[in-house]
Amino acid sequence: MRDNLHTMFYMTKIKIRPKSKNYKYWTSTEELKLEELVKTGKISFNEIGKLLNRSSQSCQDHSSILGFSNNFRYRKYFHDENFWSEINPITAYFGGFSSADCSVRYTGLCGIYRLELGECDKNHLDLFKKLTKFTGNIICDKRKNRNTTTVKIAINGCNKWMDDLKNNFAIIPNKTKRLEHPNIESNYLKWCWLIGFMDGDGCINLNPKNYLNISYTSSSTNLLFWIKDFIENKFNNKFMLRNRQNKIKKLSWANCHQYVIGGTRACALFNYLKDFPVPKLARKWQQPKILEYLEQMKQKYPQFFTETLTIPPEWQDWNYKKHYNLEENPPDPKINLISFQNPPNINVIEKEQNLCLENQN
User: Fold this and answer.
1) If both were cysteines, with which of 37, 97, 129, 332 could 196 make a disulfide (CB 3.0 to 4.6 Å apart)?
2) Smallest Cα–Cα separation from 284: which of 193, 211, 198?
3) Using an 8 Å Cβ cutoff, are 219 and 177 in contact?
4) Bridge partners (DSSP) listed for residue 154
5) Contacts of range 344-350, beta carbons closer than 8 Å, 24 or more positions apart
6) What are phi and psi of 249, to 5 degrees?
7) Is 73 helix (H, G, I), strand (E, B) or coil?
């Protein structure tokens, strides 16, 4: 194997250490140990050289010959590498959100995850940063052409994420037109994924005729057909007022397609999804006009709102704040001590107010 590698790299004019009497050949055991240490991405070549009793340059050169590189140089910030390994309501939700708005790519052998949102959704990005334990910063970017500001997170060296996102949520580089449905078995988690995709590439609004519309937009028609089948399998049999087929249409102003649900079925779907315990975007799910319209439809057509959320037993006691150790900041005890030790003098305040009124008169 070693002779073949030397021959190949000589043919491509890559300079490597020549064979000589003093050359210390790499053994197969050393190569396996080198590969194991390098692929962790947590040890520098200097430390690897000390462990293998070789120079750091020798370790770096031989790892490039064998075809793998060290991601240690990308590890200025850290994150939870196993965040996407477990599929739960939160990872399913952000899996749908990432299917809509994130981008993933490789730079060499280094995986990069990037999520960019509007400035109004910065709180949502803050939550994602806390959940993933990312130690980097949220970057603000001003777009001069549109006069808008975006916020984004870019995580380098997330090769474990790349594998989990591909296996669990079918998120791959250049996913725009070839995105597929997630690999999730539980229908409850599929609905969580669908809410996340709605927050990313969906729309909830009242049309000019004062009807509720829910739309999903994507350049992947395969994904939209899967969304259409999944929703209609649950709601068409119970909430269909007439034999009507919602079609997936291509938008004339963009290179993408859209699936729209309207009327009573949209109200039933919205009423069913709004109670899921996932961190939904308030600007989409807490619109006063839509909530008022929903209550009116419930009073007018109560027979179409019999479907209620039933959480499976394995997720009934599950709380994402406890699971990810997200606790609200407790009040500062010093402030409470000061307020109790030095309570405000009401008489003094009333005298100052009376003096101000006399001066004004």
Assistant:
1) 97
2) 198
3) yes
4) 114
5) none
6) -115, 150
7) helix
